[in-house]
Structures are given as structure tokens and as C-alpha cells.
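In response to reviewer comment 3 from the previous cycle, which asked for concrete evidence that the modeling workflow produces usable outputs, we include below a single protein chain processed end to end. The sequence was submitted unchanged, and the resulting C-alpha cells are shown without manual editing.
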Amino acid sequence: MSMDVELRHLRAFTSVARHRSFSRAAEELLITQPALSRTIAQLEGNLNVRLLDRSSRHVELTATGAEFLPHAERVLATLDQALAVVRHKVTLRLGFSWLLPDPWAQPAMSHFEQDTGASVTLTRTDDPLQALRQRAVDIALVRGDFDPPTAARTVHLYDEPRIAVCSEHCDRHCHVG
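The workflow returned the following C-alpha cells.
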């Protein structure tokens, strides 16, 4: 069995697994969908396993693919960290699942980058805590109550005010007091 697994194979697989879509993964990786399909087929052929179940309507991880995914993500994250050290520059990956709050986010990131020499990259993800557990991000911004991963530190940033806005046409139905 050949084990010629390349980084491009791992990047392709993790992108398809994350997006559950070949078209969105191809877009992210800036390659064509047929090239992405060939890369995934090469990876599966080299490993002699199926990692993805695909039909015309959906893409799902096989049990083996689900087991392989966190390891592939960890390899890529470790490589990214090693390359950042070589470049003498650290990049913190900030994961979030909603629009970043304004006005504090951009100024805070700029201040951090100026003070430390590091950079911050933003990663939009459906589940920032899962991305943190998988080491796809370094910091997860979350809302509401949650169970933090073990060996994680939490910092309360702020409380959001909630405001109800009623149309002027619903005065008699909307009594907020």
C-alpha cells in the first residue's frame, strides 16, 4: 500500500469535511472542483480507505473519515504554527460564528498586533468551540452559556444590551414597558 500523502491532500480533505461541499471547498482552496475531486480520490487511494460518502446532494464523513479528520487538522495546525515560528511571526486564529461586534473588535485586534508583533486572522465557523477543540482556531468567541473545553481559559468580554424595536404601525399591539 502506498502512503504518499501530501499536504495538499490533507488541506483538500479538511476543507471538504469542514464545508461538507466540494464546490465550497474548491472555492476556498482556489482550485477547480474536478481537481479537488481528483485530490480526494488520490488521498483515499493512497490510504486505501473511503473518507467521504458523496452523492449528488450531500457529502458526509465516513466513520474512518470522522476519525481521521481531527488528526489531519492537527497536522495542518502544527505545520502552520511551525511555519509561523520560522517566519518569526505568530498568527492567532480567532474563531467566531456571527458578525464580529463593533466597535471593540477591530481596534482591539489592531492594538494587539501593534503591541505583540503577532497577527490575528479571523475564521468564520459554525461552531467556534468545536474549532478550538480541533485546534483549527486559537481563540473562540462565543455567546451565551457553554461548557469550555478542558485546559481552556475563559475571559468575559462584555454583555450585550438587547433592545426591542416596534414598528410605529403596531402601537396598539406592542406594549413594552
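DSSP finds six helices and five strands in the chain. We consider this sufficient to address the reviewer's concern, and the full set will be provided in the supplementary archive.
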